[in-house]
Amino acid sequence: MTKKQKNNLLRILAAAALLIVLRFIPSQRITRFVLYMIPYLIVGYDILLKALKGLKNRQPFDECFLMAFATIGAIVLGLTSTGDYVEAVAVMLFYQIGEWFQSYAVGKSRKNINELMDIRPDYANIEGEDGLEQVDPDDVEIGTIIVVQPGEKIPIDGRVIEGTSFLDTSALTGESVYRQVGPGDDVISGCINNSGLLRIETTREFGESTVSKILDLVENATSRKSNQENFISRFARVYTPAVVYSAIALAFLPPLFLMISGRDPLWSTWIYRALTFLVISCPCALVISIPLTFFAGIGGASNAGVLVKGSNYLEALSKTKTVMFDKTGTLTKGVFEVVSIHPEGIEERELLHYVAHAERYSNHPIAISLKKAYGEEHDDCQIDSSEEISGRGVKAVINNKTVLVGNEKLMRENGIALEPCTKVGTIVHAAIDGQYVGHIVIADVIKETTADAMKQLTEAGITDKVMLTGDKKEIAEHIAGEIGIKEVHSELLPADKVEIVEKKLTQKKNAADVIAFVGDGINDAPVLARADIGIAMGALGSDAAIEAADIVLMDDNPQSIAKAIRIARKSLRIVYENIYFAIGVKLLCLLFSAIGYANMWWAIFADVGVMVIAVLNAVRALNVKNV
Q1: Strand, coil or helix: what is 460?
Q2: Which of 119, 490, 581, 595 could be a cystine partner for 473, CB 3.0 to 4.6 Å?
């Protein structure tokens, strides 16, 4: 609880205590008026000041003006006729109670978002002549070697050059599983080094690092309003002056009509009804709870590792019916791995041994995956020569044996008969001294969570799932079949992806249905920007993709897409619950007020009671654990 919240709570408690005490103290007119003004001013002085400020700025029609106008009117009625000031003080008191609940709920919602601010590093360690020196991360240039000790945050994106450790990525991804890193691994800022000491070569400046981009996204998230928020703002601008004029009409027209007809005008009765009408009509529940629900939804999503750039995107996400996917890095790991080994006349390990050593001096992704699979690159094996044959493969002399490693063209050009492979992937054939010895299949591995993510999307009501990829048709169709996607478009250029998305947009059966695209590469940026909703993989995705996207998944987990959709739908459901509840109760109470069946206590419930209920309902959007 903030200091301001504590002070407001003390004011509320003090005013409530005085109101109770005054009920038992006998007093007459002026003395009674003075005594009751003490709790009234204690709890309501700031509302009166805000109302005066609104009048001064020629923007009078807000909830503060309504509260001030209604309560001052009730006080005037007490002075002139009833002698009762309890209702005036009670209206201001309960209004402040509602405001306190709203402040507390906003604080709780903001806490989830502000927890992300804890990922902002305070310093970076650089080795100097006298040991480690702490410097401002903004002052660290690209290529600088920084040291991250156990328990410290990684301040800047970079690549590990020395040391191994487990990183706590929960602040970024919402996942509590540690990630192991070692030399050569890329690391992102905001993670906490949990065990070993790491030396990292920075690959970005602090202003361009992951942590800075995340903080910028979060800080600007609430600036983009949803349709509901814009509607409520427009509604309040028209509604508030309309009810003020209606209350004035209610206060004066019936008495004037009664006077003309020769009957008692009952001025105090109709003015009291008008004041009650004003309190009931205050749109606090809508004006406060709708933005709060979206704010809570964005906060809950960020806590689950899903960064939503604005409440308008949260609203759009709730209406998603079609999700289109890039393949590499989105549905797959985006890293080549050896998936199977098929030797001919030698052992699997021996085949992998010769192939890995033939590729020793190559930096091609396929060569890297082969060397990684073997894992014993620096053994006693002698490599006399190694020649890379463009578009074919590698020719090397290993332990006085001529080794050919490459594609079918390389084998055929050297007169080597090979065995066809039915596996889907990149096939690396090998021959030793002119004799075919087998082949190794390398493929981009499907993420462990992808298949389950597709099932969750179907359960979430996603009727259409589409894969868009630049890969060969057979590879794309194989992966789509493995994960359960029926519509596949392969061998695409970035412009082709945009064209397919635009075609889908024009073919929508319902204009309100939303098409989302999920991608991670720089070539996905145009299509991310073109889709109704762009969703980027944030942990390892390109900067261009993250900038173009509307939603960023910090854990690169496709399952988070379904979770984000469920969070969005829960938030929108709460928004509509609050709209229907608040308007329904107010219309009913306004009717009863106009015909004289509702007093000021009804008004307090219709205003403050409804606001508190709506605010508490809005806070439910924060709870996303079981969504």
Answers
A1: coil
A2: 490
Report whether 257 contacts 334 (CB < 8 A): no
Q: Comparing C-alpha atoms, which of 627, 345, 328, 590 is closest to residue 460?
A: 627
| Residue 420 resides in a domain | yes
d(CA 514, CA 318): 8
Task: Tell me the H-state helices in 359-472.
Answer: 365-374, 408-413, 450-459
Instruction: Give the three-class secondary structure for 487.
Output: strand
Instruction: Please give the model's pTM, rounded to 2 decimal places.
Output: 0.67
pLDDT of residue 231: 62
Q: Is 399 a member of any domain?
A: yes
Q: What is the DSSP letter of 153?
A: B
Helix, strand, coil shares, percent, the chain, to 5: 55, 20, 25
Domain hosting 439: range is 333-446
Model pLDDT for residues 558-600, shown as the tens digit of each residue:
898 999 999 999 999 998 898 888 888 888 887 887 777 777 7
How many other CB atoms are there within 10 angstroms of residue 429's CB atom?
Answer: 26
CA distance linking residue 311 with residue 499, whole number of Å: 28
Write out the H or E segment, with its range, that includes residue 92: helix 86-114
390, part of any domain: yes
Q: Would you list the DSSP string of 217-273?
A: HHHTGGGS--HHHHHHHHHHHHHHHHHHHHHHHHHHHHHHHHHHTTS---HHHHHHH
Q: For the chain, which residues score pLDDT lower than 70?
A: 1, 59-62, 81-83, 102, 104-120, 169-178, 208-237, 284-285, 365, 376-379, 521-523, 539-546
Instruction: Name the residue among 500, 451, 184 with its Cα closest to residue 332.
Output: 451
Q: How is 303-360 classified by DSSP, letter by letter?
A: HTTEEES-HHHHHHHHTEEEEEEESTTTTEEEEEEEEEEEESSS-HHHHHHHHHHHTT
Distance of CA 67 to the CA centre of its chain: 36
Provide the CA 424 distance to its chain's centre, in angstroms: 37
Q: What is the DSSP letter of 379?
A: S
Sheet holding 320-326, edge to edge: 306-308, 551-553, 533-537, 514-519, 320-326, 464-468, 487-489
What is d(CA 285, CA 434) in angstroms, rounded to the nearest whole number?
82
Residue 228 has which token pair?
């509901």
How many CB atoms neighbour CB 156 within 10 A? Answer: 30
CATH code for the domain in which residue 352 is found: 3.40.1110.10
SS3 assignment, position 136: coil
| Count of other CB atoms within 10 angstroms of residue 25 | 9
Distances (CA, A) of 543 to 56, 546, 600: 47, 5, 57
| pLDDT for res 221 | 47
CA end-to-end span of the chain: 27
- The C-alpha atoms of residue 393 and residue 556 are separated, in whole angstroms, by 33
281-306 pLDDT per residue, tens? 777 667 777 777 887 888 788 778 78
Q: Give catalytic status of residue 122 as yes or no.
A: no
The answer to whether position 422 is within a domain reads yes
CA angle 16, 240, 265 (to 5 degrees): 80
Give the pLDDT of residue 213: 61
Count of structural domains within the chain:
1
Using DSSP's 3-state secondary structure scheme, residue 160 falls into strand
